[in-house]
Amino acid sequence: MTRLTVPAGSLFGPANLPYGVYSVAGSAPRTATRLGDHVVDLGVLLGETGDDAVFTAPVLNPFMAQGHDRWAEVRERIATAVAGDIPDGAVHHIDDVTLHLPIEVADYVDFYASEHHAANLGRLFRPDNPDPLMPNWKHLPVGYHGRSASIVVSGTDIVRPSGQRKGPTDPAPIFGPSARLDIEAELGFVVGTGNAMGEPIGAEEAERHIFGAVLFNDWSARDIQAWEYVPLGPNLGKSFASTISPWVVPMLALDAARVPTPAQDPEPLPYLRMDPPWGLDIALEVEWNGEVVSRPPYAAMYWSPAQMLAHLTVNGAPTRTGDVFASGTISGPEKSQRGAFIELTWGGTQPVTVKGQERTFLQDGDEVVLRATAPGRDGSRLGFGEAHGRVLASKTPRED
Ligand code: MN
Question: Distance (Å, rounded) from C-alpha 390 to C-alpha 48?
């Protein structure tokens, strides 16, 4: 048996207990939690029969499908078990395991919930419009449906996408590798239990459906996006890859991070009203080639996760275990809090210095890492691990 200790300052103390999927060489992926620098196998820790058979699955979906009461019960059992003697076979050092995509992603929606980001993009994409926000923006959480198969786990390389683009002075569109490859620092929320078609999830009941949160980097090709997005919204400029953290931090661990959203004025329609809408005090950082270039604050997000899920289903759309809805780029009011490089460099016109070099958009070989911390119930800080990706050269050459 083993008694685990948590290093001082660890983001994976007993107030976190995130969920993930790991493997060691020669064995199949299984579910796990993390304590300090160790991964703890949930099947070995808690059991593998009856309801606990879900812990031997290669994804979290069967466990998530058991519902909110079961998530609460299992969290209590994990907390008790990891505080005592743990079977040796359950414990692996983090350096000795491979972490996998923790969920089978069902459907994926990306929102646009930061007023600061939406206003900055409005100024950049529609400079002649006097109001940077579109008329609908403060009445509903704007979003679009993305490509679930493009969601990958941290550490997966990102191949530069190719596509059509046409700059304002180009006489005709060209095809080739994106020249304005960007990131979007976001949080993703994982739906644990969905709703039947025609039976929307109310804003106040949404928290019983949301299993947890992940870091989410929505890689974006701005030149492809700018040419394609009118009038139906993002398509190929977004659908090639999004990177998530390997750890899903349970919403039950994020209780202490709840804060009211910024005041919502005008008052939303009744189906979006909450008393009050709660956001999350999660502090992100964006590291570009080893240098932190931005610190986006999730607490500044206008729409709450519960309002996003309520809106997503209000038309009767069904959701399923494993659905992911992401927040949209997280940007605060300060320049140093902008969660996308198009904002940070103002459309590429104001380069930032990264490791002594002037940079605007991503170059081949660049690496981006998202990290975040949140307050835990016991006064500690909680972490998500990393959402890390490296840009590889396009495999599709330019055609003229
Ligand atoms: Mn996005």
Answer: 37
Question: What pLDDT is stored for residue 400 in this prediction?
Answer: 67
CATH 2.30.30.230 in the chain is located at 19-99
Give the residues of the chain that fall short of pLDDT 50: none
For 177-227, the pLDDT digits (tens) are 999 999 999 999 999 999 999 999 999 999 999 999 999 999 999 999 999
CB-CB contact of 101 with 115 (8 Å): no
Nearest to 297 by CA among 265, 325, 261: 261
- Specify whether 117 is catalytic: yes
The phi and psi torsions of 304 (rounded to 5 degrees) equal -85, 160
Q: Strand, helix or coil at 271?
A: helix
The CATH architecture that domain 108-392 belongs to is Alpha-Beta Complex (3.90)
Q: Which of 68, 116, 117, 311 is catalytic?
A: 117
SS3 138: coil
Residue 33: how many CB atoms within 10 A of its CB? 27
Structure tokens at 310: 């309520």
What is the 328 CA–ligand 1 centroid distance (Å)? 4
Q: pLDDT at position 126, please?
A: 87
- Spatial distance between the Cα atoms of 396 and 301, rounded to a whole number of angstroms: 37
**CATH fit for domain 19-99, picks 2.70.130.10, 2.30.30.230, 3.30.70.1170, 3.10.300.10:** 2.30.30.230
Task: Give, as one character, the DSSP assignment of residue 310.
Answer: H
Give residue 48 CA to ligand 1 midpoint distance, Å: 38
CA of 56 to the centre of ligand 1 (A): 33
> In three state form, how does the secondary structure of 11-47 look?
CCCCCCCCEEEEECCCCCCEEEEEECCEEEEHHHHHC
From CA 346, how far away is CA 355, in angstroms rounded?
19
Q: pTM surpassing 0.90?
A: yes
Integer Cα distance of 339 and 327 in angstroms: 12
Secondary structure (DSSP) of 109-124: EEE---HHHHHHHHHH
Q: 229: which DSSP letter? A: -
Instruction: Quote the ligand 1 centre to 5 CA distance (angstroms).
Output: 38
Amino acid of residue 114: S
